[in-house]
Design goal:
InterPro entries: CDP-alcohol_PTase-I, HAD-like_sf, HAD-SF_hydro_IIA, HAD-SF_hydro_IIA_CECR5, HAD_sf. Pfam families: Hydrolase_6, Hydrolase_like. This protein is α/β, with parallel strands linked by helices. The protein has two domains: about 5-120 and about 300-395, Rossmann fold, CATH 3.40.50; about 125-255, Rossmann fold (3-Layer(aba) Sandwich). The chain has 14 helices and 17 strands. The strands form five sheets. The chain has a six-stranded parallel beta sheet with strand order 7-6-3-15-16-17, with helices on both faces. A five-stranded parallel beta sheet has the order 9-8-10-11-14. α4 runs parallel beside α14. The relative contact order is 0.14. It binds magnesium ion. Magnesium ion binds next to loops.
């Protein structure tokens, strides 16, 4: 369960100058009524809106780590007007509370951890893995291990742990040994048995991570350093590959591209997965599919998870009776990535009948003139104009002004 935080008076006084660390010091667990005040400010809500927003973060609210101009104005307006929103990002690599603290600091806006859905947030609900041994791949140093442990996973191993126990497993990362030594933990065995693989964030050492994942997918029952006798058996499904209780493979983020500081989009976790798919096709001689689970936008499971969070958030803000009395009719997904944000919103089939509309901004991956493989409801310059357009569509009485 995500912890909810409220700003204390010290935040209100000093918000413009806060660092992420000092912001965290000003955060304290809050109750439902405080959370309501946090979202609404001093004024009581006039009505329960029948619409809400879902905002992507990178390329919509931030570009790399810099705030997008007018993002603060758009979100603070929604808070003042009691219009709910959720943050739905394919980013990850840190715990939700840390990301909220950072984002609050950058946008100069108090935000609620409970409305923050990252690509790996659904992993927090996978109770059946929490006593198993899992390999956590990707992210900076040991941060994703920390996230998994905060989610309740008790036996987490990283590629760095394996590499330090046996550097011969991948001869080409020797120069990175001092780096890995900073956060790796000793293993009881250099050849552990792994029950599941979770790619939490973009791998930093593609060679090592790819080699270990392939080893495990070819292993007997996830025992590193072994080879399954079933691999290549023509009489078995998938030519015998991944038929011997090898670890299940979970990816948190399908994005091929993401918007970084560089002027061209950069390969994301989806690029790593494609590299693995290519190697897997060669390793299996084209006879076996790669069995895996992929989360994140544009997938239905992630939108369902996000919608549940949004509905719960709405009930917390307005009270269950009021929230249910005015059904949520429309969610505006504001994103910069046509393949994840827009395709996901357009294709999502809401279990409760909410319509998701897609607003594509030009401050991230999508640039004016780029060819579109999917058609958004509307293309707008930035998040400010996206909110303005949606409010106009809803005939909302108050104007969003600069
Ligand atoms: Mg984005």
């Amino acid at each position: 369960m995500a912890t909810i935080f409220a700003t204390t008076p010290c935040l209100a006084r000093s918000a413009p100058r806060l660092s992420a660390a000092s912001l965290r010091c000003c955060l304290a667990p809050i109750d439902r009524h405080q959370r309501r005040r946090l979202h609404f400010g001093r004024d009581a809500p006039r009505q329960v809106p029948d619409f809400a927003f879902a905002f992507d973060i990178d390329g919509v609210l931030l570009r790399s780590s810099d705030p997008i101009p007018r993002a603060h104005a758009a979100l603070s307006f929604l808070q003042r007007e009691s219009i709910p929103f959720i943050l739905l990002t394919n980013g990850g690599g840190k715990h939700e509370a840390d990301r909220v603290a950072e984002l609050s600091d950058k946008l100069k806006l108090p935000l609620d951890t409970g409305l923050f859905v990252q690509s790996h947030t659904p992993f927090a609900d996978m109770e059946h893995y929490k006593d198993k041994t899992v390999l956590v791949v990707g992210g900076d140093g040991g941060k994703c291990r920390d996230v998994a442990e905060q989610y309740g996973y008790r036996n987490v191993i990283t590629p760095a742990d394996i590499y330090l126990s046996n550097p011969d497993i991948w001869p080409f990362s020797g120069a990175l040994l001092p780096h890995y030594a900073q956060f790796a933990r000793p293993l009881s065995s250099a050849a552990p048995k792994i029950d599941a693989i979770f790619v939490y964030a973009d791998p930093r050492d593609w060679g090592l991570d790819l080699a270990l994942i392939v080893d495990l997918l070819l292993s007997a029952r996830g025992q590193l350093g072994t080879l399954s006798a079933l691999n290549g058996r023509a009489d078995l499904p998938n030519a015998g590959f991944q038929q011997d209780a090898q670890p299940a493979l979970h990816f948190s983020n399908p994005d091929l591209w993401w918007a970084a500081r560089y002027h061209l989009a950069r390969l994301g976790q989806g690029g790593f997965r494609e590299a693995l798919e290519g190697v897997w096709a060669k390793v299996t001689d084209g006879k076996a599919a790669l069995h895996k689970h992929v989360y994140g936008k544009p997938y239905q499971a992630t939108y369902e998870f996000a919608e549940k969070r949004l509905l719960r958030h709405r009930e917390t803000l307005f009270g269950a009776d009021a929230a249910r009395g005015t059904a949520l009719r429309t969610v505006y997904m504001v994103g910069d990535n046509p393949e994840s944000d827009i395709r996901g919103a357009n294709g999502f089939r809401s279990p409760v009948g909410t319509e998701w509309r897609s607003l594509l901004v030009r401050t991230g991956v999508y640039q004016e003139g780029s060819e579109l493989s999917v058609t958004p409801t509307r293309i707008v310059p930035d998040v400010f104009e996206a909110v303005k357009a949606a409010l106009g569509e809803r005939k909302w009485a108050s104007r969003l002004e600069e």
